[in-house]
Amino acid sequence: MAAPATSTQANGVLNGQNTAEMVPSPHIPAGPSEESVDGTSDLLMDGARFGDLEDVTNALELGINPNATINAGTTALHMASANGHLDIVEKLVDAGGDVNSKNESGNTPLHWACLNGQTHVAEFLLRHGASISSLNR
């Protein structure tokens, strides 16, 4: 029996998505959301990570906190920023997403956008109050 596929396996396909164009989110182990038992915040997180604006919109309309976190304090804004999904970053910020939220390593959405070369997202975050002096560990 073959080992289960990870985000870097499965011949470049994960959940029907072409992973060749997606930047893996750093230090995001698979697992349930800290704030969700029924999977509703997973809708927000997965939508943000994979660029699905409809899922993000639906999750926010269901009342999911835009600052909900998963493993190690990562928010949907971290995910969308790392992967360059500006439309989702805008939606999350408009919904009250914290541009200066830090995960357990002290990384902000701006850190993840810069780490992955997402300058258009970094510029947006800076225009919306992201701190350029925030340090990680």
UniProtKB/TrEMBL annotation:
Organism encoding this protein: Apatococcus fuscideae
SMART domains to which the protein is assigned, alphabetical: ANK
Keyword Repeat attributed: yes
Keyword Repeat belongs to the record: yes
InterPro entries reported in the protein's UniProt record: Ankyrin_rpt, Ankyrin_rpt-contain_sf
Record's protein name: Uncharacterized protein
Ranges for region Disordered: 1-44
Keywords: ANK repeat, Repeat
GO process terms (BP): protein K6-linked ubiquitination
UniProt GO MF annotations: ubiquitin-protein transferase activity
ANK repeat locations: 72-104, 105-137
Record's compositionally biased regions (Polar residues): 1-20
